[in-house]
Design goal:
By secondary structure, this protein is α/β, with parallel strands linked by helices. The chain has three domains: 3-55; 76-281, Aldehyde Dehydrogenase, Chain A, domain 2 (3-Layer(aba) Sandwich), CATH 3.40.309; 286-316 and 354-366, no CATH class. The chain has 13 helices and six strands. Helix 1 runs antiparallel to helix 2 (27-35) and helix 8 (123-133) packs across helix 9 (148-155).
């Protein structure tokens, strides 16, 4: 059903849980049901049949009931695409911009679009939409983020009142030749039908070069080789798989860093391809000593560290010394009590040892 309805669903769950307690005929049952959190009874992502019937488009509700009662599979790809584009009326830069459909599944996609609240424009409506939303290939910002029904009204045609997304068939990419192929920042999707996944791949690259280079692409597929090819070949730094692009790129439905500012990298004119998080805003102050010199055999002194007496000869590896000759048997060893007691290490001793080690290390690398 798409993650865009998540917050509304959770609110409905809570409201239903309260109403259960009020509607029960027995006081004991009311107390027991009121005490148990709804999420423990049904899970945090579930809401009852009454809420489903009231809030979901009819076709979606019927498909969901067939899944529950008959075990029919849902169609997550189209559901995710429409949910992503409908979220915040398509204002997110990561929202789906176009559907690129492999020809063998075209009919299935066209059947599913209206189930999830999408309206497929005819040729005349497409021309009206171009003139209103993207005149001469430039976005009419007055329509950015508007409801699909309002965008259609301003373009001069009407759509069902429960329409969430407008869809227009496209065959080319470019501001002048196909104005609706641009980034639209509204609940309007382009629909391309290509013959084979390689043609879909080439079309996706075209669209990214027009608007979105380095940003985000989502693929709905169960073929690992196709997914790998899209990952390797697409000029985008976020390749999402089988999820909602709008929320997957921001980390909500994926393991990416949660962020609403998404870097497109050098291809997109940015210094980073990361999801921008608070870590990118941390300023770190550093104190750096010279470890290798450009003009001298050894690095400059490091004030604040004890100066070594004289650095040993610069060698890459220490040459092993011959073992000392064995001590004569007759030589008397000092008694344990006669040995001088070892003095405890002081802070100055530790600093000297560290300084000597650093000096030897620097000399070995010079």
């Amino acid at each position: 059903m798409g993650s865009a309805a998540l917050a509304e669903a959770i609110r409905s769950i809570n409201e239903w849980g309260i109403s259960v307690g009020r509607a029960s005929g027995e006081a004991a049952a009311r107390a027991e049901e009121a005490a148990a959190p709804v999420t423990e009874l049904f899970g945090s992502l579930t809401f009852n049949d009454q809420v489903q019937r009231a809030r979901l488009p009819k076709e979606v509700y019927r498909a969901l009931r067939r899944t529950i009662t008959l075990g029919e599979p849902l169609d997550p790809a189209v559901a995710d695409i429409i949910a992503g584009k409908a979220f915040d009326n398509g204002l997110l830069c990561s929202a789906e911009n176009a559907i690129i459909c492999d020809r063998p599944v075209e009919r299935q996609v066209l059947e599913l679009l209206p189930r999830y609240g999408a309206y497929l424009c005819n040729d005349d409506e497409k021309l009206r939409l171009e003139a209103s939303l993207a005149p001469h290939g430039r976005l009419n910002t007055a329509l950015a983020g508007q409801d699909a029904t309002e965008i259609a009204r301003r373009a001069g045609f009407t759509v069902p009142p429960d329409t969430r997304v407008l869809v227009a068939r496209l065959s080319r990419v470019g501001r002048e030749v196909e104005p609706l192929s641009i980034e639209k920042l509204s609940p309007v999707l382009g629909l391309y039908v290509e013959d084979g996944w390689r043609a879909c791949c080439a079309r996706a690259i075209e669209i990214l070069h027009l608007g979105g280079l380095g940003h985000t692409l989502v693929i709905h597929s169960l073929d690992p080789e196709v997914i790998e090819a899209f990952f390797r070949e697409k000029p985008a730094f976020r390749i999402l798989v089988n999820t909602v692009a709008a929320m997957g790129a921001t980390g909500y439905t994926t393991g990416l860093a949660p962020a609403m500012t998404l870097g497109p990298g050098a291809p997109g004119g940015s210094i980073t391809s990361d999801n921008i998080t608070p870590l990118h805003l941390v300023n770190i102050k550093r104190l750096a000593y010279e470890v290798r010199s450009l003009t001298r055999p050894t690095p400059s002194p490091a004030p604040g560290l004890d100066e070594p007496a004289a650095p040993p000869a610069a060698t890459r590896c220490a040459v092993p010394r011959p073992a000392a000759p064995p001590r004569p048997v007759e030589e008397a060893r000092p008694a344990e009590d006669d040995r001088p007691a070892a003095a405890p290490l002081t802070a100055e001793d530790v600093a000297r040892i560290v300084a000597e080690f650093l000096a030897h290390h620097r000399a070995g690398r010079s």
